[in-house]
Structure formats: C-alpha cells, structure tokens
Amino acid sequence: MSTAPSRRSAGFTPTGTISTSGDRRRVVFATVVGTTVEWYDFFLYASAAGLVFGQLFFAPAGPGVAQILSFLTVGLSFLFRPLGAFLAGHLGDKYGRRVVLMITLILMGASTTLIGVLPTFDVIGVAAPVLLILLRVLQGISAGGEWGGAVLMAVEHAPKAKRSLFGAAPQLGVPLGLLLASGMLALMAVVAPGDAFLAWGWRVPFLLSFVLILIGYYVRRKVEESPVFLELAERKEKTRMPIVQLFRKHALLVLIAALVFAGNNAVGYMTTGGYIQRYATNPDGPVGLATADVLGAVTLSAVSWLVFTWIGGWIGDVIGRRATYLIGWAALLVGVFVLFPLVNTASIGLLTLGLVVLTVGLGLTYGPQAALYAELFPASIRFSGVSISYALGAILGGAFAPTIAEALVKATGSTMSVTWYLAGMVVLGAVATLVLRDRSGIPLGPDHEAEQSVSPVRGLSKA
Questions:
Q1: Do residues 54 and 392 make contact, with C-beta atoms less than 8 angstroms apart?
Q2: Per-residue pLDDT tens digits of the chain, which is 463 residues long
Q3: For the CA atoms of the chain, what is the radius of gyration?
C-alpha cells in the first residue's frame, strides 16, 4: 500500500530524502550537537580517569594498581555498549531513530552529572568506586545506543551524492566532544591548579553536562524522523526481531565491520581514553609535562581531528568510502610510528605535533564511516547492524587500549611495544576494509531490500 502523498506533505520526496536545504541543515546541526554532548560526557570520564580518579576512588590499591584500575573502568563501559546497541537497535528498527536519540541523550547526561557530585573513597569508602563504576556502565549503555541513531538520521536524510559528507556530521561530535572535554579540564587546571583541581576543579566540567543536555534535548526535539524509517512504517515492513535477523543472515558482515572500526578506535583511545594525558603528565614518568599544557595539546589535536574527519567525509563522496579508508590507514600507520618518539622528547611542541599527525589518519578513517556502515545493511535491520558493529568494534579496539598500553609499558619498559600493538590494530582494520566491496550510492530505501541484502563481503553472494 502506498502513502506517498502523506510523505510529501511531511516534507519528503518520493525518493526518501528531505526536500529542502533548510531541513537538511536542521538535521546536520542536531546530529552534531547531540553527539558532541554525548561524547563530551564520555571522554570527560576517560580524561578524568587518567588524571584524578586513580587517586580519588582507588587510592588504597596503591599508586600503580590504582591507575590500572582507573583505566579498567574506562574499558568496562565498553562491555556494556553492545547492550546499549542491542536495545537501541531493536527500538530504533521498530519505533524509529528519533526516540532512541532522546533516550540516550538523557541517560548519558544524568550519569555524567551524578559523577560530578559523587563522594570519593575518603568520604564513603568502597561505595565510591562501586557507584562510579555503575555510572560509567550507564554511560556505556548510552554510548552504545547513541551512534547508530545519529548516523542514520544524517545519512538517511542525505542526498545520495553527499551521504559521506552528511554522515561525517555526527562523526564530528567525537573530536568536538574531546575538544570540549579537554578544553574544560584544561581551563579548570588553570583556574584550580594543584590540590584544588583534585579537590573540586575536576567536578565542574561534569556538572556542566546538565546544561549541555538541556540544549541537546531542545535541538533534537526539532528534528523529523528518518525518511527511510517513515517509509518502512507506512509500508508496515518493520522487522519484528531485527537482531535475530541480523545475526542469522549477516553475522560475518557484523564482525568484519567491527574490525574496520577497531583499527581506528584503538589508536584514537590513546587520547580519548586518557592514556597520553596520564603518560605525559605523570611526575614519576619519563615526560613529566604540566597537566594544563598536555590538555591544551590534546585540545588542539581535537581541532585537527575535526578538520580531517570532515575532509574524510568529503573525500568519501568523491573517490568512494573504501578508497578513502585505505588512504587513511596508510596515514594512520605513519602517525602511530611517530607518536611516542615525539611524546618522549618531553617537548610540548613536539608532543602536540605527534598528536596532530595522528589525527590525519584518524579523521580519514572516521569521516566516511557512517556512510560505509549505512550502505552495508538492509533498511529493515540497519539500525541494529550499524549499532552492534560499532559497539563490537569499540570493544575490540578502544575498550582496553589504555589498559593494554599501560601494562605493555610496565612489562617492557618501552613505549615501542605500544607502537607495535597500535600498528597491528591499524593493519587489522586495513585488511577488514579490503575484504568489503564499496557500495557507495546504493539505494537505502525499503524498495531495494533485495539489492541491499546481497553481501558486500568479497567472495560471498548472499549474507
């Protein structure tokens, strides 16, 4: 049954794209704002884990073990991201992308704000780290559900020739979130230096989340539902059990897509996971730079990451997603091998250079990801496919990257072991990319489910 007139009256064309540039701008703005707030909250925790949580919540374990435990809480949340992805994928494929985005935004903001008022171990004992972990788990569930909804809102609203560029909009939320989180912590390190930062300065950026969440909620309320989902709803073609269908028909594709992201995510979490911040500021370590200086360098690298993510999205529409990725993997491999030699000079200028060089490859392998993922999966299970692939990739990649790096340096006494670990993850991501066919421009609507269901994995005709 056709209800095309109602879609046209809602502002949609028969091809399932937004009909006015004003509507498109509103979608892009909303996805950028929403994901920026989400990732600000998520990365704020990771940075604080590298700077203060070890001392405030895990101190009785001893300095070395306390820091490892602090980084473990960063990774622990990733184990719950698939839960968030499963829930969001099920809800998003049945009830729409928009409702999921509202839920995840509120959950993340509430969790982050509560961390800002959480008493430390000295005040309430072992209950402090337990509550901290529980709130981090809620952040993980929220992050697992956020990404799929945001990128599908952007890509499914986009003109076919600009999907990669539109899809880069929610991707910009990652470097913007890192920029905002690092910038706020750097500001507070200046306003409340030394013991003051440890006592109360770190809490201010967490409390700011409450204001940001209100802004993000207001902006997202103004956005229309994805036209692809509306068409599915009108045709009554929504899948009853999308996750079951996903794994029954596309399990291998999910794994390969996850490995693509794992290569990018492992490297990115050297900064977003707080490892570089801790390594470079540790007064007992080989670098020993000032906290405010290092946070400033990370903030500057976030600007560079933002620029190259946008460039990656733009190039993805020109030469295809796969070709853009392969260029990005080569650049990322270079960045991995220059990072620690520059950081270990103990020069803030060279540390900044190392972080900026790293962001070239990070951006080129992140900008086109939304379009790449959206074009891999059939419309009826797309939310589940992209969300679960992303969440699994985060576990395989960034979840425990800071913890692994910390353990490798302690075991070998050298950061070269971390370099080889990261290089291996980059190569793994590149191989996974080579296994996939480029499906740039494939129709995304439910009319083309048969074409979308043909496996993009080389050597397979059907998933």
A1: no
A2: 333 333 333 333 433 444 466 667 777 787 888 788 878 887 888 888 888 898 899 888 887 788 888 888 877 877 887 888 878 777 766 666 677 778 888 888 888 899 999 999 999 999 999 999 999 898 888 877 777 778 888 888 788 899 999 999 888 888 888 888 888 988 998 898 888 988 899 999 999 888 888 887 777 676 666 666 666 556 555 556 777 888 888 899 999 999 999 999 999 988 876 788 888 998 888 888 988 899 889 889 989 999 999 999 999 999 999 999 999 999 999 999 999 999 999 999 999 999 999 999 999 999 999 999 999 999 888 888 898 898 889 889 987 888 899 889 989 999 999 999 999 999 999 999 999 999 998 988 878 888 878 889 987 655 4
A3: 21
